[in-house]
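Support reply, case 0932

Customer input (verbatim):
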Amino acid sequence: MNMRTESGRSRMRIPVWKILILGIALTVNATLFSRLAWGPQSIIAYRELSEQQTVLEEKIAAADADNAAVSKQIRLLQSDDKYVEKMIRRRLNFVRDNEILYLFSDREDAFGQRVHADDGKN
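Our regenerated output:
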């Protein structure tokens, strides 16, 4: 007959190996949680990379639009004589007979540089 008192049940000893396993498990969980939150492959790093991806996708879309515009301009320059004449007149400041060309200081020449009134052009 093994009779234990109420105070005997509360004084049961937990084996050392169980405490050791619990300590190891808590340490592993704390390490994994810290890597999940602040490590090189963490949630924070993922969000930053996701934002960078969005920015890069927007830049790619803008580059694609520019590429399409340049491709259209190339096709027009190869096939449309009126467009070629328009670009020559606009960018190189060519004029037809009996035309006068006025250059203003806020315009740019064919090389993307500002045209000034006193730079020696007529």
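We compared this against your earlier run and they match. Two observations from our side: Residues 43-79 form the longest helix (37 residues). The two ends are 123 Å apart (CA to CA). Please reopen the case if you see a mismatch on your end.
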